Amino acid sequence: MPENVRYITPEDVPPPTGGAYTPVAVAGGFVYVCGQIPRDAAGNLAGDDFESQARQVFTNMERCLAAAGATFDDVIKVNGFLKDFSADFKAFNEIYLETFSAPLPVRTTVPSALTSIKLEIECIAYVGD
Q1: For the domain that residue 50 is a member of, what is the CATH number?
Q2: Whole-model pTM?
Q3: Count of the separate structural domains present in the chain
């Protein structure tokens, strides 16, 4: 592992399952949050509808950021992956605008071949050295 990198596995987000990764890494003043999914800390799916799932994803992101001493105000880049891009992009954008304030983070949103979930979101924040 590289020196001066801190790896964090918050207890209040879903644990890594089916993959080998750490949810949060802090390096050089940057906070990297891996793709968050719409499951609570116990692994339960937030709901069948897009809004419920999106709100859980942003809650998980907020908890990951907090574990690293960051907030949504520190986020500079967001990558969003939507299962049904054409059906859910508008709702995603609305919830995104409730979550972040201007100046908005740089963002990429793409369709994805997700199976049992409707979205996954990852981000990068900057908290300084």
Answers
A1: 3.30.1330.40
A2: 0.94
A3: 1
